Amino acid sequence: MKFMIEKRFKEEIYTDKNNYEYITVSHDENKVRIYTLKNGLKVFLARNADAPRIQTYIPVRTGSNNDPADNTGLAHYLEHMMFKGTSKLGTQDWEKESQLLNSISDLYESHKAETDPEKKKEIYRKIDEVSQEASQYAIANEYDKAISSLGATGTNAHTWFDETVYKNNVPNNELEKWLKIEKERFSELTLRLFHTELESVYEEFNRAQDNDSRLVQYEMMDALFPTHANGQQTTLGKAEHLKNPSMKAIHKYFDEYYVPNNYAMVLVGDLDFEETIQLVDRYFGTIPYRELPEKTPVVEQPITGTVKRTVKSPTTPRVQLAWRTESYGTREAILADIVANVLSNRGEAGLLDLNINQTQKLLWGQAYSVGLKQYGYFSIVAVPKETQTLDEAKELVLEQVELVKKGEFPDWMLPAIINDFRLQRMKSLETADGLATNLYDTYIKGRSWEQELNELDDYAQFTKEDVVAFANEFFKENYVIVYKEKGINEKLIRVENPGITPIKINREAQSEFLKEILAEKTEDIRPEFIDYQKEIKTDAVKGKKISFVKNKYNDIAQVHFIFPFGSDHDRDLGISMQVLQYLGTDRYAPEELKKEFFKIGITNDFKTTNDQLLISLTGLEENIEAGIALLRHWMENVQPDQEIYKDFVQTVLENRAAMKKDKGRIMTALTNYTKLGAFSRFTDVISKEELENSKVEVFTDRVKKLFSFPYGIFFYGRNLEAFTAYIGKYTEPETLQIPEPRKYPEPATGGNVYFTNYDMVQMEMSKVGRGKDVDPENFGKINVFNEYFGRGLSSIVFQEIRESKSLAYSAYVSYAANSELNHPDYITTYVGTQPDKLQIAVDTMTELMAELPEVPVQFENARNSALKQIASQRVTRTNIFFNTLRLKKLNIHHDFRKDIYHQIESLTFEDLKAFYNHCIRPVDFNTAIIGKKENLNREAVDQMGTFKEVSLKDIFGH
C-alpha cells in the first residue's frame, strides 16, 4: 500500500433521549446504531421499513474452535440443546424433572469414563430408562411453539469455527415477547431430551459423511492447520466424542461462553431506536457480565512445501489447492481476496472464468478466499474433463496464477472488481437480512462497523503493482493439495444405533411460561394487500408492453425480457441459451464480450423454464442502456463456431456424467421418476447422438430470431421516462408465432417402489402421491396443514420422527399446490436415516398419516402463526411484478393473500380434517429409495409395493 487516505467513514458518539450512549458512523446510509449495555452486551440496531417485521440475530463469539479437545462437536450440540427450553419453558414439573436430569448427567459421566464395551451398553440402557421417566415431565419443542406463536419465520441456528448464531424474523409488534423468550433461554441451559437429540446429531454426522464437499474440506483444513482448531476440530466433532458426551462439559461451556459480553443482539427492521434499546436493556441488561476463559493463541508454523492428501468418494474427481493466509481484514487477507477475484469474479471476467471456463479447457475452475477470525485461506477448485488427470487440471489453474504473478491481466480489472464489490454491497445492504447478516459477521470477527464500511476504500488503495508483488511473494510451493478421486471411501464411520426407546412428548401440555406468552395480547398488525394495478405502471413502445415498478431504495436497475414460451414449446431452447454463453460476435471474441459486460458493471442472466424464457440485465441504472445494446448486438450477431460447439457438447456430456455420480442429483432424478414416470420434462432431453451430429447453426439461428417472437418488458428502476425514450431503438415488430407446447403426462401414482443403488452411510426415502387438481380455495388449509403437521420444528411429524423416536435428522410431509390451473397437487414425504432405522421410520410415518392427529393447542398455534405471518408480510421490489405472473397461471388477478388470510381466519380443525380426509388420505403413493443395496431390507420394502431397481439412464433420460 503506497499511502494512507483519510477515512471516509468515522465513528461518532451520541446519547439518545433516554441517556443511552451509542455509536454511529458518519456517511452510513443505513444509520446503524451500536449500543453497549453495562454488562458488555453489544446491541446493533438499524431501521428497514420494507415490512413491519424485524430480522433478529444473536451471534455468540464461540464455535467449534472452543470445543474441549476431548469433547469435539460440543458447541454444535449445545446449539441444538438451546432449543429445548429451560426450568420454566418446556417442563411440567421442574422439581421432579431436574432430579432425573441430574441422574442422567451422572450416568453420562460414568459412561464416558467406562472402557468396557459391554458395561458401556449397560450404562446406556440405564440412561435410556431414566430418560423415559424424565420425558414424562418434558414438553417437546416448546421453545418453537412459543416462537411460532409470534408469527416468527426462519427460526434456526448454525455453528461454525468461531460463531454460533441464533436466528428469527419476527413481527415488530411481538418484539417484547421475543425478547422475553430469548432472555429466558440465554439465562440458563437445560439439557432435557438429551439422548434423543444426540441421536439426531449422529444422523447429521452420517449425512455429512455422504457429502463429499465436506470430506474434501475436512482433509484440506486438517492439512492447512495441523495444530490450530481451524483444522483439528470439525463443527460436527469426532464420532468417538459424539458417542461419549458429557452433560457437565456442555454446562461448563455454556457458563463460560454464553455471557452477555460475548454475544450481541442484532435487530434490523421496522423498529424505534429508543424504545428498542430500552426493551433490550430491560430483558438482557440483568444477565451478569462474566470474564471469559484465558485462551493461549495457537501459532501455526509456515507451510514450506506441498502437502498432498487424497480422499475417495463416488462423485466426479476434482482437485483443490489451498494456501494459508493471515486473519480476516489483514493486508495479506485483502490482497488474497483481490487475487481470488482477478481469477474468478462471480463467473464473469476473471482469468479462470475466461481462460478456463469460457474456453472449456476444464469442466470447471474457480478461486475464492475465506477470512476467519484467526488465519484464513485462498483456494482454487479444478474439475477435470474425463480425458484429463487431476495433475493436468492442477497445472491448468496454476498457469492462471502465474499470469497474475506476471501482471498479465488488464489494467481496468482492479477498478472494475472494486466497483462490482460496491454494487454487490449496495444490493445486500438494502434488505433487512442482508444488513443484519453483515452486522453479525462484523461482530463475530471482532471488527468495528467503521472498519467494515471503510473496507472497500482499503481494497481500492491497492494498485496492480501491489497485487503482482503480493502474488509473487505469496504463491510458492507452500500449498495444500487435495485429490478427490472417484472410488470407495474407506474412512466411513457407521455410527451404531444405540437402541433408544421412544420418549413421551406430551403434545398437549403447556408450561406456565408458554401460557403467559400466549395469554399476553399485543395490538395486531393489520395486513396490507397490494393493488397490483396501482403499483405497476404500464406503457407501450412500438406496440411492446412495458411494465414498471419504481426502485425506492438505490440506483441499481433491472430490465427483464419475458418471453411467454419455454422448453415445452421448444425442447432445445435452454440448450441454445447455453451455447450462446460460449460464442462471440463479428465484433467481439467470446471472452471480450464477458469483459465488456463486466467493465460496465452489468450482469446478464438467461433462465429457461417449461413455459417461459427470462433474459435479465442488472446494474447501475445509468449503464442499463449500454447493457441492452451489448445484449442485442450479442444475440443478433452471434457467430456460429463448430469447434467451440464441439467442446461445448463434450462439456454437456461430461456434466451429465458428473450429475449421475452426485447423490443429491440422483435423488432428485429418482424422485421425479417416482412422481412422473419414465417420460417427463426431466428425462426429455436432447440425446448424445443429436448433440454430436447437430450443426451449431441449429442453435444460433434460434438465438438470432428470438426478439422477433412476442415478449414483454419489465423495468425496475427510478426513471421510466428515460427508459421508454431509448428502449424503442432496441424494439422490433413481432413476426414469428409461438409454437404449441408439448404435453407431458401426469400419471396416477401408487404401489411402486423405485430403488437406486449408491454407496452411502444413510438411506433416503421419499414417497410421492398425486393429489386432486389445484384449487386456490384450499390454499389457506394447505398453509396451516404444512405448519401444523408436516414441516417445521413443532410439527407433528418432526416431533414424532425426530424428538420422540430419534429416527432421522430430517423428516417432513409437504403438500405442494400446483402453480397452474388444471394440474394436480402433490404430497411428498421424506425421511433420511440409518438403514437399520428405515423400517421403523416408515411405519411411524404410515401410522401418523393414517388419520390426522388432533392436538387443538398446536392447531391454534399453527393457525395464528400463519395469520401473523401474512399480516406482517409486505410485497416489495421486483416481487410486485413477478407475483402477477405467478398468479396469472391460476387465473387470479389480485393479491390472493387476502383470500388466504380470510380462509385461515375462519378455519377450524374440523375443516382441516375434512380437507385431509378428502385431499390427502385417499392419495396413493409411489416410493423412491436411494442407498447401498446391501443395506436394503427387501422384506420391509416389498410391503410398500412392487419393487423395481432403476438405472441412472432410466431416471435421467440419458
Beta strand count: 25
- Contiguous low-pLDDT stretches (5 residues minimum) are none
Please report the number of helical segments: 37
What can be said about the biggest beta sheet? 8 strands, mixed
Strand content: 15-25%
Radius of gyration using CA atoms only: 29 Å
Shape: globular
Neighbour order of strands in the largest sheet: 1-2-3-4-8-5-7-6
Describe the model.
- The protein is α+β, with helices and mostly antiparallel strands.
- α21 (573-580) packs across α27, α29 crosses α32 (856-871) and α32 runs antiparallel to α34.
- A hairpin with a 4-residue loop joins β11 (364-371) and β12.
- The strands form four sheets. The chain has an eight-stranded mixed sheet, sandwiched between helices. A six-stranded mixed sheet has the order 14-15-19-16-18-17.
- The protein is globular.
